[in-house]
């Protein structure tokens, strides 16, 4: 039973169908001749479909291999382009609770490209306050190259208000990137309306094939490529050179269009199911505490703390009972580490190590909640008796 859609959702049947129908065809979009033209037509149709679904222009869609690539391309590429235009722009502002793909890219810039990275503090629900951004841009912000804040936090689900952030950053001449990996299919995502310069999407989070995604890059915004050696037919292809798979591009586009079309009804259903999950879990395990904004959050996200438990023990015990969840924390060599998101929110370390992320998606039902509640009290009791590692 999958209660970890935030890590990856099953591929939608309509995406499977289109991918399987194209896998047997030959031709690369970069080839000359009829096969190449047919492959290029599939890719460009996919690009146009994604653009239409997400409120972007056709040439603003850079097809990628997923969220990590998109975040790295945005953070590094925008920084390098800004530095090239104005060497004084050396600061990169990122939220302290960002996904590791953003934080890792920013830290790499600090080590390799003389960037001055500042992690903006978050409040107790995981949101960067507009006043925090304003303070970081004090004095005009002429040395800021980039501000990167996720549209919705990948662990606790809190939605970030971006309108004023974009206005402040653009007034200072800085670029704005948002990681919208968790948002597509659950929240309305309109690139044009958001006003950001770059937006990251990852297909496998909502039912597209793994290894698919996109970086939406505002027309006219300079961005440096991470890859070199491919000519590319279009500006988007030159930014991300190398052959694209027509089958994967088409599957990504079909899934994206499908989840965006169904998003309003899907969000209502998920929100109701999520609220049931939270209520019933808190009844079954008194003291379980919901993290993140209680209202302005992803409709499919429920992040709960179970005091006195090792989160990784809970994951393993639930997995043994056929329930897939995650802690959201990073582990290295089998040693549990508390979630950097929860620590940034001011959660004590022992509580940060005692949390689980439940995430719902397409296919989630009330039966999933029933199955979870049936086994969770015994799992929590056993985890508490096992103690801390």
UniProtKB/TrEMBL annotation:
Its cofactor is pyridoxal 5'-phosphate. The keyword Metal-binding applies. It catalyses: (sulfur carrier)-H + L-cysteine = (sulfur carrier)-SH + L-alanine. One of its GO terms (molecular function) is metal ion binding. Its EC number is 2.8.1.7. Residues 3-372 form the Aminotransferase class V domain. It comes from the Bacteria. Keywords: Iron, Iron-sulfur, Metal-binding, Pyridoxal phosphate, Transferase. It is an enzyme of class 2 (transferase). Belongs to the class-V pyridoxal-phosphate-dependent aminotransferase family. NifS/IscS subfamily. This is cysteine desulfurase.
């Amino acid at each position: 039973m999958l209660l970890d859609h935030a890590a990856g959702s099953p591929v939608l049947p309509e995406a499977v169908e289109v991918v399987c129908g194209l896998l047997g065809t030959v031709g690369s979009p970069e080839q000359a001749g009829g096969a190449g033209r047919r492959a290029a037509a599939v890719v460009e149709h996919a690009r146009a479909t994604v653009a239409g679904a997400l409120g972007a222009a056709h040439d603003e869609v850079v097809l990628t291999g997923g969220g990590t690539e998109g975040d790295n391309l945005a953070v590094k590429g925008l920084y390098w382009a800004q530095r090239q235009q104005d060497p004084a722009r050396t600061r990169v502002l990122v939220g302290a609770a960002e996904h590791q793909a953003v934080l890792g890219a920013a830290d790499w810039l600090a080590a390799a490209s003389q960037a001055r990275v500042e992690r903006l503090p978050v409040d107790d629900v995981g949101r960067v306050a507009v006043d925090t951004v304003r303070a970081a841009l004090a004095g005009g912000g002429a040395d800021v190259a980039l501000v990167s804040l996720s549209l919705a936090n990948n662990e606790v689900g809190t939605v970030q208000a971006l309108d004023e952030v974009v206005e402040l950053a653009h007034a200072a001449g800085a670029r704005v990137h948002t990681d919208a990996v968790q948002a597509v299919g659950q929240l309305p995502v309109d690139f044009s309306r958001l006003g950001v310069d770059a937006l990251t999407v990852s297909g496998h989070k909502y039912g597209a094939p793994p290894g698919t995604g996109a970086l939406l890059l505002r027309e006219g915004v300079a961005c440096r490529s991470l890859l070199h050696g491919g000519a590319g037919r279009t500006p988007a292809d030159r930014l991300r050179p190398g052959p694209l798979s027509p089958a994967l591009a088409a599957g990504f586009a079909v899934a994206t269009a499908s989840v965006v079309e169904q998003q309003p009804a899907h969000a209502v259903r998920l929100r109701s199911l999520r609220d049931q999950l939270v209520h019933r879990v808190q009844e079954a395990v008194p003291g379980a505490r919901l993290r993140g904004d209680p209202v302005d959050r992803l409709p499919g996200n429920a992040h709960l703390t179970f005091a006195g438990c090792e989160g990784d023990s809970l994951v393993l015990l639930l997995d043994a009972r056929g329930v897939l969840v995650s802690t959201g924390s990073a582990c290295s060599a089998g040693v549990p580490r508390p979630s950097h998101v929860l620590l940034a929110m001011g959660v004590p370390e022992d509580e940060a190590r005692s949390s689980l992320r439940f995430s719902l998606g397409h296919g989630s039902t009330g039966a999933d909640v029933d199955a979870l509640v049936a086994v969770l009290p015994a799992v929590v009791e056993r985890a508490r008796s096992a103690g801390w590692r």
